[in-house]
Amino acid sequence: MSGEALRSVDLRKTYQSRGAPTVEALKGVSMEVHRGERVALLGRNGAGKTTFLRIASTLLRPTSGSVEIFDIDIAAAPQKARPYIAVVPQEGKPFFHLTPREQIYTYLRARGFARETAKARTEEALDRMGLTGFANQLSVTLSGGQRQRTMVATVIATEAPLLFLDEPTIGMDPFARREVWASLRALTQKGSTILLTTHYLDEAEVLSQRLYIVERGVVLSSGTAEELKRSVGGTLKVLIPDGASQAERFRSFGTCVTDGLSLTVVVSPNALGEVMGLVTRSGMTATVGPVTLEEAFLRAVGRSINED
Ligand SMILES: Nc1ncnc2c1ncn2[C@@H]1O[C@H](COP(=O)(O)OP(=O)(O)O)[C@@H](O)[C@H]1O
Ligand SMILES: [Mg+2]
Question: Which residues of the chain carry a pLDDT beneath 50?
Answer without folding.
Answer: none
